Amino acid sequence: MSDNAAGKAERAPGRREAGKEKRRQRIIQAAREMIRETGSTGLSMRALAERAGVSLATPYNLFGSRGAVVVGVLQDVRDFHMRFASVHPGDPVDRVLAGVDLAVGYYLDDPAFYSTLWREVFNVSGEVRAAIYNPRRDAFWLGLIGDVAASGALRPGIDARQLMRQLDHVFRSVMLDWVAGDLAPEALGPTIRLGYALILCGAASDAARDGIAARADAIQKELMAIEAGRLADRQAGEAPAAAGQGRPA
Predict the structure, then answer these.
(1) Is the pLDDT reported for residue 195 higher than 90?
(2) Dihedral sign from CA coordinates of 123, 128, 129, 132
(3) Is 53 left (phi over 0), alpha (psi -120 to 50) or beta?
(4) What is the CATH number of domain 80-232?
(5) Fold of 9-76
């Protein structure tokens, strides 16, 4: 075989892989658009293939199933760990709260997409739930809680995994309220952070408790200001209607 032929043979697999990755990204982008538009992860594979400009067989060949496509979308849009690496609050407790804000930022940047995914999280048999609550994610939060413990901010005997589960309960319950439309978007992050701060305050060592309590107080004031602002807006909107009711016929 000539050097030219050998070079072509070596490049061919690379071109094939690049082509597969390009098609994969087109399918992921099409799936994201369809989830946002329809409010459902029950994608039609035929419609997905048409939107992505590929054959009907391609999504199955590259992903295997509809659920795997949805999980692929989730994995590709979540560069959470890379972005968190640029967050540098010095205190370990602040890093936990910063992680909440970063996660919530994703959801509020694209609420139509993420509210759909979180509805699937509450479907206990769904693949999306397993994709969000996975070992890598647990290891990340356990690492942050381990840093809090190592700083001396937790009482002896507090188990990091049990503490993480309690924080998870707060996160999921607040997300349910958001998905149901019972929580204003601007209150989402502060509500989760307040729950975290209160739990961490209960688990805190004597030396750290006052500092964590001060964070909880500050977050509570933030939430109260949000609620007061929304109440004022609502009353301002109701005032013209109430004034009009007194006009003579």
Answers:
(1) yes
(2) negative
(3) left
(4) 1.10.357
(5) Arc Repressor Mutant, subunit A (1.10.10)
